[in-house]
Design goal:
alpha+beta, 434 Repressor (Amino-terminal Domain), Beta-Lactamase, 3 domains, six-stranded mixed β-sheet, three-stranded mixed β-sheet, 19 helices, 12% strand
């Protein structure tokens, strides 16, 4: 239900007028006679089909013995009115009208259990609808929309930087010191939490936050994604310090993950220290992800993420970031420098194949696991420079690449690289279509068996925290609470 020009939901306004009229024991005819409207006109207002003018609103307020502000209160006058409004909104929705179902009138005499049953059915239909749309397609839409928001801000979140500064202060860490485990322990202690390392953490979780017992449970083994307990602990705390609520949809879930990751990096690599470091490196033309990583003792991937957060805002360098599986599939991406990453019809980049001639792909053949590789790539959008690092994880081998336009490469170590490739993508003839001679030689003679990810045909796991078995979580907390 859209709002009226008065800035209030017509249904709520109508219910407030009806509530006040009934309280004064006035009939529709009585109120209509006083304000100069027919009883049918008053009924239309009370049912939310018409909106009174400002003059009529003032007259109604006077007659009903309240102020105009009281009439415009956005909250329904009673719980019963709120339930009736919810039902009426649903009946006026596009999905209900399109269903062809008949209108069911709810009056003041409708038993509360009947109204409750109707609303229960509505809420269950909405739940099932939301569960159905939480497909990989919906997830890709949500991720694409979130990436556009990040790009608009240059990858920088000022509100999260403020929170990170406060957490760093709580840690008692001296400026220039790496953020160690003892600093994080002090931070969590001051926030009123205790860190507990457990060997029976649910396998679908990286951490569990017990708000009742004020405990943070982490697995005894280091985090399998980062190899470091610090980021897992900070990401666990993020939901609490950022006051995250149960996500209402997949976009909200993704946003919370982005914020948690950002906050963890901002605490381990504080803005007040990272920016001077990067600014000096830029002035000396020796920007390096490896140097940035080593200064703060974090992973290459976290250093790359943090560099992307700060580069545009503080260095004036527009950048791109990509995490690419050895098979060529893009897992994570960010860009605000015009790099033409492949996109699907939904606007999603993740899941697409990166060009065979881009650094994120050529790096696998060019370097060892711990080495770096730099390359210039000529593309239809211009020439870009990238530095890439190879990372081995439990789910495969990945390249982590950070890059920029040709003109900005002069600030980075590795700019003197002789490696240079030419890419025609998104032209399919670049690398997506087999060479004509090979295609002709093997036409109708090759039948490969694909290895799709299991998520291709399945919906995202239902629930507030997709992919987490909440029964395991609750059983785990129950065991440790006792």
């Amino acid at each position: 239900m859209s709002q009226s020009t008065l800035g209030v939901d017509p249904l709520v306004l109508g219910r407030r007028i009806r509530f006040l009229r009934s309280r004064k024991q006035m009939s529709l005819d009585d109120l209509g006679a006083v304000v100069g409207r027919a009883a049918s006109g008053i009924s239309a207002i009370e049912n939310g089909h018409r909106v009174p003018t400002l003059a009529q609103l003032s007259t109604l307020a006077t007659v009903l013995g309240v102020s105009a502000r009281d009439l415009l209160d956005p909250d329904p006058p009673t719980a019963r009115d709120a339930a009736e409004i919810e039902w009426e909104r649903f009946q006026r929705s596009h999905e209900y009208i399109a269903s062809g179902l008949p209108q069911v009138r709810v009056s003041r005499t409708t038993p509360p259990e009947v109204l409750g049953a109707l609303l229960g059915l509505v809420r269950e239909l909405h739940r099932l609808r939301d569960e159905r749309v939480a497909t990989p397609e919906e997830a890709r839409r949500a991720n694409a929309a979130l990436r556009l928001e990040q790009r608009a801000g240059g990858g920088y979140f000022p509100d999260l930087e403020v929170v990170a500064r406060k957490l760093v202060e709580l840690s008692g860490r001296d400026v220039g010191q790496p953020m160690g485990h003892r600093h994080l322990a002090e931070m969590t202690k001051r926030l009123g939490f205790t860190v507990v390392y457990a060997d029976d953490c649910p396998t679908t979780t990286r951490s569990v936050l017990d708000l009742r017992g004020r405990r943070i449970y982490l697995p005894k083994l280091p985090d399998q994604v980062t190899g470091d307990h610090r980021s897992a602990l900070l990401q666990a705390m993020a939901g609490y310090v950022l006051e995250h609520h149960e996500p209402s949809d997949y976009k909200a879930f993704l946003r919370q993950r982005v914020e948690a990751n950002y906050l963890a990096a901002a605490v381990l690599m504080p803005e007040a220290e990272a920016v001077p470091c990067l600014t000096q490196a830029k002035a000396e033309r020796r920007l390096s992800m490896e140097g940035f990583r080593d200064q703060f003792t974090v992973s290459f991937e976290m250093a790359a993420h943090r560099f992307v957060n700060l580069a545009t805002r503080h260095l004036g360098i527009e950048v791109h970031f990509a995490k690419v599986h050895s098979g060529g599939v893009i897992h994570k991406v960010y860009e605000n420098d015009g790099m033409l990453f492949p996109v699907d019809p939904l606007g999603a980049i993740e899941g697409q194949f990166v060009c065979r001639y881009w650094t994120g792909r050529t790096a696998f053949e060019a370097i060892g696991e711990a080495d770096r590789y730099a390359q210039y790539t000529d593309t239809p959008a211009g020439t870009f420079w990238d530095t890439s690092h190879i990372k081995r994880a439990k789910d495969g081998v990945f390249s982590i690449s950070v890059g920029c336009r040709f003109d900005d490469a002069r600030y980075f170590e590795g700019r003197a690289t002789r490696h240079r490739m030419r890419s025609g993508c998104p032209d399919p003839n670049c690398c997506q279509v087999p060479p004509p001679d090979l295609a002709e030689a093997w036409k109708d003679a090759a039948w490969p068996s694909a290895r799709p990810h299991s998520s291709v045909l399945t919906a995202m796991p239902a629930g507030a925290f997709p992919g987490v078995d909440m029964t395991d979580v609750y059983e785990f907390l129950e065991r440790h609470a006792n």
